[in-house]
């Protein structure tokens, strides 16, 4: 009886799903405020660093390198008819940066914190900025002494700008980031001797990769829940149940497979692929 209990316990341990990656909530960058806020011209401004509080740089928290900017905020002053854009900048070299994405112009409600939804792909090391597109916008606030960049005009996405560096402003803009979950399904390699397939899945961040479906069994390195790193991941697939019996009888079978990637702390994304298995009889 003792031997049976030990055997059952060992089996339970073996089939337990792999632990999920550590949670990584959405990340906020930038700051807002209106104390001692100057009225700014309609030019591009970006914040490379601050001495205190939340940074304006996209982080690499938890190994996440690819993010989506999902919302941004600005605390508007009292003037009416205000408009502004948020922009994200990526360094080329020195003070030369590229606009990798922007949202707006947005109409700003006077005297309150304005928050807007957006969808801008960003990477670790990118920096946040704001561009007023009307008069009366208080684009920055105290304390003084913070470094900031200024570029003439309103650059389009993809344009390069060589900033002039100044000291004295903390930009009045913040944003929320979530880990990118978009992935691509690449080449399928088949082992006709074993009747299995290996699918290459390209994932943007570390996280969990799973495969499921009627008659689908993710095997080998890919178990029920597989912790993966960013990049190309090999996902072995084999048939089970009726699909396995059909493969053994006919020498081929198609598996409708749901492949799901969940970045660490992010939301899952699923794609469906028809994976053909072939076996030499």
Would you kindly provide a written description of the structure presented here, covering whatever features stand out?
- The protein is mainly beta and 281 residues long.
- Helix content is 9%, strand content 51%.
- The chain is built from two helices and 21 strands.
- The chain has a seven-stranded antiparallel sheet, with no helix packed on it.
- A hairpin with a 4-residue loop joins strand 14 and strand 15.
Describe the secondary-structure layout:
Elements lengths: L1 H14 L11 E5 L12 E3 L19 E10 L6 E12 L2 E13 L4 E11 L3 E6 L7 E2 L5 E5 L8 E3 L1 E4 L2 E2 L1 E7 L4 E8 L4 E8 L3 E6 L3 E3 L7 E3 L2 E9 L1 H10 L1 E12 L5 E10 L3
Antiparallel strand pairs: 1-13, 2-7, 2-9, 3-6, 3-13, 4-5, 4-7, 5-10, 8-12, 9-11, 14-15, 15-19, 16-18, 16-20, 17-19, 20-21
Distance between the termini: 43 Å
How many runs of DSSP E, i.e. beta strands? Answer: 21
Number of continuous helical runs: 2
Strand order of the largest sheet: 10-5-4-7-2-9-11
Weakly predicted, low-confidence segments: 1-23, 220-224
Using only C-alpha atoms, the radius of gyration works out to 25 Å
Mean pLDDT value? 88
How would you characterize the largest beta sheet? 7 strands, antiparallel
Structural shape: elongated
Strand portion, in percent? over 45%
Structural class: mainly beta
> Helicity, in percent?
under 10%
What order do the helices and strands follow? HEEEEEEEEEEEEEEEEEEEHEE
């Amino acid at each position: 009886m003792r031997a049976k209990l030990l055997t059952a316990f060992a089996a339970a341990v073996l089939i337990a799903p792999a632990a999920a990656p550590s949670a990584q909530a959405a990340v906020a960058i930038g700051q807002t405020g209106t104390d001692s806020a100057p009225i700014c011209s309609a030019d591009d401004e970006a914040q490379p660093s601050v001495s205190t509080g939340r940074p304006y740089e996209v982080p690499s928290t938890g190994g996440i390198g690819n993010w989506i900017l999902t919302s941004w905020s600005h605390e508007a002053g009292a003037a009416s008819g205000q408009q502004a854009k948020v922009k994200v900048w990526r360094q080329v070299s020195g003070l030369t940066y590229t606009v990798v994405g922007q949202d707006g112009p947005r109409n700003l409600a006077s005297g309150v914190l304005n928050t807007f939804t957006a969808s801008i792909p960003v990477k670790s090391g990118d920096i946040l900025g704001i561009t007023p597109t009307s008069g009366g916008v208080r684009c920055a606030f105290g304390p003084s002494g913070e470094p900031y960049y200024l570029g003439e005009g309103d650059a389009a996405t993809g344009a390069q700008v060589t900033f002039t560096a100044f000291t004295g402003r903390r930009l009045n803009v913040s944003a929320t980031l979530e880990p990118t979950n978009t992935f691509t399904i690449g080449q399928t390699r088949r082992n006709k001797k074993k009747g299995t397939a290996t699918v290459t899945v390209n994932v943007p961040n570390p996280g969990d990769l799973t495969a499921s479906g009627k008659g689908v069994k993710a095997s080998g390195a890919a178990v029920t829940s597989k912790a993966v790193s960013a990049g190309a991941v090999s996902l072995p697939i084999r048939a089970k149940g009726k699909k396995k019996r059909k493969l053994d009888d006919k020498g081929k079978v198609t598996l409708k497979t749901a492949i799901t990637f969940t970045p660490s702390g992010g939301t899952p994304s699923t794609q469906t692929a028809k994976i053909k298995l072939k076996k030499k009889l």
